[in-house]
Design goal:
DNA/RNA-bd_Est1-type, 2 domains, mainly alpha, globular, disordered N terminus, Est1/Ebs1-like, telomeric DNA binding, two-stranded antiparallel sheet, DNA/RNA-binding domain-containing protein
């Protein structure tokens, strides 16, 4: 959804049509037959459905009329006690069958009515009862979905019944046919139907919020849908900007919860990028994150152009919201993104000029915004790193190297512990390159001028931050970039030259940081550096994930960097970005340990135990 435009929510492919409905009914009938055979009380086959269906229809009509009345909250709430009482297995199966039949019929009717009436109504302002009729049918469809989920996930439901919703894509069908398609139809006729949109969104929000509490098996889907509804609500609010900001905050909160549960899913960061307006730098960060996480969202490559085109001068739209320094930074990366930073085998003046303008203003900008650069510095670091990965191009050799490593670790984990959770042990995208091919592909990548430009922008920004010795506001930026370098060097498939990293500045920064830390807290430098980068088990219980850990979680290069259970130590969601006194010290210690991890390679820098100082390695070229 772009400002002033229509909102399109990308969804997974779904099972649809009569074949799908027939298959689902057959599955339920098989369950019914199994139940009938095992029941001593009633061995009737599925032939008693007609009598039950009549009763169910009356219940459905009664419930629908109540829910379509005025007090939606009370009516929906009254459904929960009914579906939490003990129910016989065969009764549940019967109810599931009847509910699914009504649901499927309503689903088909909704699609048919919408297509027929949309073609028939030529007036740009169709009659009031047109939308009213469609809205009532959508409400009934959502209510039937709610009944179906409550029945199939009843405490007494057998596993086969519980699996029906997932096996037949019921959450996706509910969202697509029950919510998104209707809202998109309404939005094409805004502002004539704003009242209907508000009323329906309130209804849909209640249904999904209720499902979030009562059917946690699909909690991830419900949470993301609540974010979608918040975005819709924000999009149509054009009168009260405070209400618009409020709904943007609601959507942002739900998407953040969804991203916490699925940090490797790029689609969620794409949604957050849209909500980041008018903060152009934050938008660029979220788009970069969406494209370079473990499961990138390809559509973000199109959406990001709404941010880049005005800055690159490719559209007439004005872009007055971006600060000049942010515009220069985004322009440099935008030129890289569209391939215009190189022309005739040479770096273009336009790219070099944008980079120079950004760097000339950066030090003063950091001094002016002070603590705000703790977050901004991470946004810049993540975007700089995205340039190394060609902003998510699938055949990028670095991405392939990390995918190979992740794939191998996943196979090892499955053989050792096959019951690990999906979040901790994902099924990474299969690499398109083999281990034997990756070395040659990396060699080709390092020769590309666009890749050299990406490294130049990364290193020049890094060097400037490192020269601000003593400024705690640059520590999060330094931490993120050192983590990336350690992650690269730790990957056994990545063998590229790192001589262009500003090692002299890194060494000076580390030595000053180590000296300051030992003077203030008086720890033994040897003990401090020798500790593991991350605490294991119950070690160092006061050491929690840093704010920048959350800001880089799920990226292709951080997935193997953070320990599996690292984020189990998380603070309350409200406090994770608060800078406590312990945050600064833990960040300092992390940076020093990262430096020590690099020094142990003794390739670019080394550590001298007698003098407790970092220095240039004797093996450095």
């Amino acid at each position: 959804m772009e400002s002033g435009g229509s909102l399109k929510i990308s969804r997974c492919p779904q099972e649809q049509g009569n074949e799908e409905n027939s298959t689902a009914c057959n599955h339920i009938e098989n369950l019914e037959l199994d139940s009938a055979e095992s029941s001593a009380q009633d061995s009737r086959p599925f032939s008693h459905k007609r009598a039950d269906k009549e009763g169910r229809s009356e219940e459905s009509k009664k419930a629908s009329s109540q829910v379509l009345a005025s007090n939606l909250d009370d009516t929906l709430g009254s459904l929960i006690p009914v579906y939490s009482q003990p129910i016989l297995k065969k009764t549940l199966i019967s109810k599931a069958y009847l509910t699914y039949m009504e649901l499927a019929a309503l689903e088909e009717k909704c699609q048919s009515v919408e297509h027929t009436q949309a073609a028939a109504v030529k007036d740009p302002t169709p009659p009031y009862d047109y939308w009213e009729t469609l809205m009532i049918s959508r409400r009934r469809l959502l209510l039937e979905h709610l009944h179906f989920f409550l029945i199939t996930h009843h405490p007494s439901a057998p596993p086969q019944l519980r699996n029906l919703a997932a096996n037949h894509s019921m959450p996706a069908r509910m969202l697509q046919h029950g919510i998104h398609s209707f809202l998109e139809s309404l939005q094409t006729r805004e502002p004539y139907n704003k009242k209907h949109m508000l009323e329906f969104m309130h209804w849909a929000y209640l249904i999904v919020a209720l499902l979030c509490k009562t059917v946690p098996a699909f909690e991830d889907t419900w949470i993301e849908c609540l974010g979608d509804l918040g975005r819709y609500r924000m999009a149509i609010e054009d009168e009260d900007m405070r209400d618009r900001d409020t709904w943007a905050g609601v959507a942002r909160s739900w998407y953040t919860k969804a991203a916490d549960k699925n940090p490797m899913t790029g689609r969620l960061y794409h949604h957050l990028a849209i909500l980041a307006r008018p903060n152009a730098l934050q938008q660029m960060y979220y788009y970069s994150r969406s494209l370079t996480c473990v499961k990138p969202f390809g559509s973000a490559r199109e959406s990001i152009m709404t941010l880049l085109n005005p800055i690159l001068g490719c559209s007439k739209a004005s872009f007055t919201q971006a600060l000049p320094i942010d515009a220069c930074f985004i322009k440099a990366h935008g030129l890289q993104f569209v391939g215009d930073s190189v022309k005739e085998e040479q770096t273009t003046e336009e790219f070099l000029s944008a980079k120079a303008e950004f760097l000339e203003s950066l030090s003063d900008h950091i001094g002016r915004v002070t603590a705000k650069w703790k977050d901004q510095g991470v946004w810049i670091a993540v975007t700089n790193i995205a340039g190394w990965f060609d902003f998510g191009v699938d055949d990028n050799a670095l991405r392939q190297a990390f995918l190979i490593e992740l794939s191998e670790k996943a196979k090892e984990s499955v053989s050792v512990a096959p019951k690990t959770s999906a979040i901790d042990q994902p099924d990474p995208l299969q690499p398109s390159a083999t281990p034997d091919e990756i070395s040659g592909k990396l060699a080709q990548l390092t020769k590309r001028l666009i890749f050299k430009n990406a490294r130049l922008l990364f290193n020049d920004t890094f060097a400037l931050a490192l020269r601000r010795v003593g400024d705690k506001n640059v520590l999060s930026h330094v931490n993120t970039k050192l983590a990336f370098i350690v992650s690269l060097i730790s990957n056994r498939y990545i063998s590229i030259c790192f001589d262009d990293i500003p090692w002299t500045e890194v060494i000076a920064f580390l030595n000053t940081l180590l000296e300051t830390e030992t003077q203030i807290h008086q720890p033994s430098p040897t003990n401090l550096l020798a500790e593991n980068l991350f605490p294991a088990g119950d070690e160092r219980p006061d050491e929690l994930p840093l704010p920048e850990d959350y800001l880089s979680r799920g990226l292709i290069w951080t997935h193997g960097f953070f320990p599996k259970n690292w984020f189990d130590r998380e603070r309350d969601e409200e406090e994770r970005y608060i800078e406590h006194a312990s945050t600064a010290r833990n960040r300092t210690n992390r940076i020093l340990r990262l430096g020590y991890a690099l020094a142990k390679h003794d390739r670019w820098i080394s550590y001298d135990d007698p003098t407790h100082t970092f220095r240039v390695s004797s093996k450095a070229s």
